[in-house]
């Protein structure tokens, strides 16, 4: 039997790129998949690909920052597929490039709103129902700037660091009832988001390092994150709930290191041990 048989998975931002690969992999593992995004044609194409491989999926067009729309989307998922077991928050925006005094403040804030508020909305909608059923797994995608400075990418970085902390707080609130939350950094993936960084004048001016990374062959296949998230959905990494997992991780090695990571309180947003002692 497939590992995710009888499970229902919701994947946001599932119309292309990393999200599409995550949705496909969830379906390959046996899950019924709801593909959420704003662009109908893209999510319908993802659903068509899933069905072409013999899977079951529906496309649900949703504005992720509209809480009522998110609640309606989840109600439809439950009605058509069943209760949600796995939520993957893959949606993301990164269009505010440059120093904050050069960025359009509305664009900067829109990045934060889509990334952070969108994740809040889906978690707020899904978590209570998972708690009522006694289990579930939530995966929130993070990225550049989560644990380090990201010059000229402050809106994206701030939102992703906030999602990491939200993930930790959510997990610590719900894990007692077997609802676990995880953060996943897929790594640098060639996607519509990175193409904008590479092609726009602002991207070329303020984020030239992205092109250099690709020139140096730093290009993580989206399947790495998709396979990792399938493992998370199947419970392989429950020990690391509330922590950061990466698409570039060797999954077998990571499984062997889980207890050591927890003992060292690794893969988390923390002050250094020296600084902790001063507080």
TrEMBL record:
It comes from the Bacteria. GO terms for molecular function: oxidoreductase activity, acting on the CH-OH group of donors, NAD or NADP as acceptor. Keywords: Oxidoreductase. The keyword Metal-binding does not apply. Pfam families: adh_short (PF00106). The keyword Transport does not apply. Belongs to the short-chain dehydrogenases/reductases (SDR) family. This is NAD(P)-dependent dehydrogenase (Short-subunit alcohol dehydrogenase family). It comes from Allorhizobium taibaishanense.
């Amino acid at each position: 039997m497939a590992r995710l048989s009888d499970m229902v998975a919701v994947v946001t931002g599932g119309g292309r790129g990393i999200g599409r690969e995550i949705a496909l992999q969830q379906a390959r593992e046996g899950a019924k998949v709801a593909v959420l995004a704003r662009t109908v044609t893209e999510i319908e194409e993802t659903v068509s690909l899933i069905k072409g491989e013999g899977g079951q999926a529906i496309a649900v067009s949703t504005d992720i920052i509209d809480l009522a729309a998110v609640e309606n989307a989840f109600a439809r998922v439950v009605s058509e597929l069943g209760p949600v077991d796995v939520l993957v928050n893959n949606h993301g925006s990164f269009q505010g490039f440059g120093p904050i005094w050069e960025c359009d403040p509305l664009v900067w804030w829109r990045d934060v709103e889509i990334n952070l508020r969108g994740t809040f909305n889906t978690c707020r909608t899904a978590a209570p129902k998972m708690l009522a059923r006694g289990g579930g797994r939530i995966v929130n995608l993070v990225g550049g700037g989560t644990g380090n400075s990201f010059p000229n990418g402050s809106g994206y970085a701030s939102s992703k660091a906030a999602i990491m902390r939200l993930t930790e707080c959510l997990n610590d609130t719900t894990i007692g009832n077997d609802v676990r939350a995880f953060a996943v950094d897929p790594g640098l993936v060639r996607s519509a988001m990175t193409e904008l960084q590479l092609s726009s004048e602002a991207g070329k001016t303020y984020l030239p390092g992205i092109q250099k990374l690709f020139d140096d062959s730093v290009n993580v296949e989206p399947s790495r994150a998709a396979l990792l998230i399938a493992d998370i959905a199947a419970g392989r990494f429950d020990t690391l709930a509330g922590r950061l997992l990466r698409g570039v991780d060797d999954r077998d090695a990571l499984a062997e290191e889980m207890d050591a990571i927890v003992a060292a309180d690794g893969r988390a947003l923390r002050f250094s041990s020296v600084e902790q002692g001063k507080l």
